[in-house]
Specification:
- There is one protein chain.
- By secondary structure, the chain is an alpha/beta fold.
- Strands 1-2-5-6-7 form a five-stranded parallel β-sheet, sandwiched between helices. A two-stranded antiparallel sheet has the order 3-4.
- Strand 5, helix 12 and strand 6 form a beta-alpha-beta unit.
- Helix 3 packs antiparallel against helix 10.
- The radius of gyration is 22 Å and the shape is globular.
Length: 360
């Protein structure tokens, strides 16, 4: 984020060489969502006054405070338990398709029962137990129901596989759990990709495969629930004591956020129904850390907002949820007004319940 601000100043000076844009004569507001939201909060820690204000939407932020959990921790937990737990909830958003979710969950409940991790005698009891375990870990039903998206689209496993490699600083082909990426042909055999395909990755891909023709391959697939061995390995990197686990946890610890610069205007906006970055693990403990240190921050919680505004293109999501981004824009307007005239106070904490954007 700081590099982006510095690059922005460089571009301005290139385009307008007579103006001499610097941090002390140019207003710089750092704004981002998700990982970008976490990035702007980390950039806020520096004392050099590069930033004039910060707006963070649904930030992926990890702090040393009660309730905070690293994304890798809860993603690997959810990847194992959520398919089963979702069977204990009704009225899940679609897509993903309910039948596919139920098949996945039934398979996972049976596998965890066979291992002795669940103890219920039937599917209903097993799903209820898995849901209770996630409740005990800090997930509420808002996050679980919205988390059906991350479960059905295999996002938990995708995030965990990618982040394990990044946190552990592993080289290409050295993933600690044997995951890799490849473009596959119709028979599932790795194939070469051309320049046009690679160009589309930058414009169309999410940045976390699978997608756009790139598959996530798991060398440990086996058994009645073939994804479970690989998920066990990913989870062991958080809970275990292997050299690989220590490398991954060291990388995660390095992402832990500290206090921002004093007197920096800040607004944090988070959806109450966020199932990928639940605010109970991220924004709420971050705000509590700031308040305990006597720092000012505005915290907006948005009801009926989940993590992916793009999914509101699906009719069922449009019926259930509102977009978060308009509230991030409103926060940006608010800090701009405050910077223009310090007599205009930053807004107070609020639980926002917008109806615009929500289909009837």
């Amino acid at each position: 984020m700081r590099q982006a601000a510095q690059f922005g100043l460089q571009v301005l000076n290139t385009q307008f060489p007579t103006r001499n844009f610097r941090a002390d004569n140019t207003r710089i507001i750092a704004v981002g969502i998700s990982n970008g939201g976490g990035a702007v909060l980390r950039a806020a820690e520096h004392d050099d006054a590069l930033l004039d204000a910060v707006v963070a939407g649904e930030p992926n932020v990890y702090v040393d405070a009660p309730g905070s959990r690293a994304l890798y921790d809860y993603a690997t937990l959810a990847a194992r338990l959520m398919p089963c737990a979702l069977l204990d909830l009704d009225d899940l958003p679609q897509p993903p398709m309910t039948d596919a979710l139920r098949a996945m969950g039934t398979q996972r409940c049976a596998a965890l029962k066979a291992r002795g991790e669940l103890h219920g005698d039937d599917l209903t009891a097993q799903a209820r137990e898995a849901r209770a375990l996630l409740h005990a870990a800090g997930f509420d039903d808002h996050a679980l129901r919205s988390g059906a998206t991350s479960t059905g689209f295999d996002l938990w496993r995708s995030v965990a596989a990618a982040y394990a490699s990044a946190y552990g600083r592993y080289r290409f082909g050295q993933h600690p759990c044997g995951f890799d990426y490849a473009a596959l042909d119709a028979e599932g055999t790795p194939r070469a990709v051309d320049v046009a395909e690679r160009a589309l990755w930058w414009s169309d891909a999410s940045g976390i495969p699978p997608g756009n023709g790139i598959a996530l391959r798991d060398s440990q697939r086996a058994g009645e629930d073939p994804d479970l061995p690989g998920l066990d390995c990913l989870r062991s990197l958080w809970e275990g004591d292997s050299e690989s686990a220590r490398h991954v946890r060291e990388g995660i610890a390095a992402t832990r956020a500290a206090l921002p610069r004093e007197h920096l205007p800040m607004i944090i906006v988070h959806g109450r129904d966020d199932g990928l970055i639940p605010m109970a693990f991220s924004s709420t403990p971050y705000v509590q850390m700031l308040r305990a240190a006597g720092r000012d921050v505005t915290y907006w919680q948005v009801t009926d907002a989940q993590h992916f505004d793009a999914f509101l293109a699906f009719p069922d999501y449009a019926r259930r949820y509102v977009p978060l981004l308009p509230q991030v824009h409103a926060a940006l307007d608010a800090v701009w007004a405050h910077l223009e005239n310090p007599a205009v106070a930053l807004p107070a904490d609020a639980v926002l319940s917008p109806t615009h954007g929500k289909a009837d």
